[in-house]
Fold:
Amino acid sequence: LAVTGSSAGCGGVMFWADYIFKQFEGRVSHKAAICDSLMGFVPEGLLEDVLEEVGQEALCTLPIWPEAIREACYAGQVPLEKLLPEVMAAHPDTAVVAIHGKADPVCLHFYNVLASDRNQGNWTEEQFVMRTNQRLSEWNAHPNFASYL
Structure:
């Protein structure tokens, strides 16, 4: 069973992989989550604003959230960067893969458009690479994670 997506579809993998894997628990012998071209960077406060707009009752009760993310949601936080690590921890027999260009111009532009809309400073390519390396370093702590740059 492979849950895979590219660009915004990778966001779908981040959000849905845990739920999908739980639905097939005990019925498939191999599982993988493959994210292509998205590291999940969003400007500070953006997801919390979405949570406020949509409402905790609507968002936090979705069945797709791992328990730790659901708890954070009820606390007013949406820690996107923790979604894949939660999948890795909950499904240690599952391969989780990130395919990403360190200086992906589309992801950098997407982040900068959102940041400028919020009056936050744009990231340079160097800052994007630094944050990508930092996130991959955190994710690499999981033995079932691999990255291809």
